[in-house]
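Field reference: "sequence" (input) and "structure" (output). Example, Transglutaminase family protein:
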Amino acid sequence: MRLAISHTTRYTFSGPVAHGLQRLRLTPLSWGGQSVESWAIDLEGARHEASYDDENGNHVTLISFVPGVREVVIACKGVVLTADNAGIVGKQRGHLPLWHFTEQTRLTRGGARMKALVAALQEGLAAGEDTLARLHALSDRVREAVVYEPGHTDVASTAEQVLEAGRGVCQDQAHVFIGAARMLGIPARYASGYLMMDDRVEQDASHAWAEAYVAGLGWVGFDVANAICPDARYVHLATGSDYTAAAPITGIGYGARDEAMEVSLAVEQQRVEQ
């Protein structure tokens, strides 16, 4: 597919901001079944400071706020060519060893509820099931345990808290999947990006899913929220051990007590006329 993306984030502050820094993981790369035809990030009320590739192989843009600013706009726009590889992303990128992705983080670490989910999964599998089959079964288990329903969690919610609530969003389902896969000894990581919905162009937010490493295939994606492996409708932005390592925007600011954030996102397929 040829996907056209327009993603704008607008911050409005209650007063002048004396200092602000943000780390943007908002640049897709040509790899894993996608090819970036064009991409640009335009800033208002902020300036570019540096760009680099982090330990996960994500492209990061560091920006600072113009002193005294009351509004900051980050506008991303571009075209990405995608293919349906049945969720297979392929080999490892970045500088981190695979064992790093078997270690739990604060957001993925589970307790009694996750142990029970993993135990039930193993009991339900036939002897000799391969890793890929186990991961598909895990995705189904997580979808049953965590119903997609916004408003019950936030970015700081842990996998165990999500299982207790039984409700969450794509980020939460990804963290539970990752924690359970790691409990099974399977390397797993968080992925952020875009998803073109079939019924509309305007999207509510960017998307998140999980990836697990399968010998012979490499990294394979699992979108628990939609019960599929990512296809040509998906665009990768970043990957990491959890949300904190792959979040599209993170940062700090000083000088204004309150802020309002408004996000507009459109993802649509462009038809190529013959």
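The chain has a mean pLDDT of 93.
DSSP finds five helices and 16 strands in the chain.
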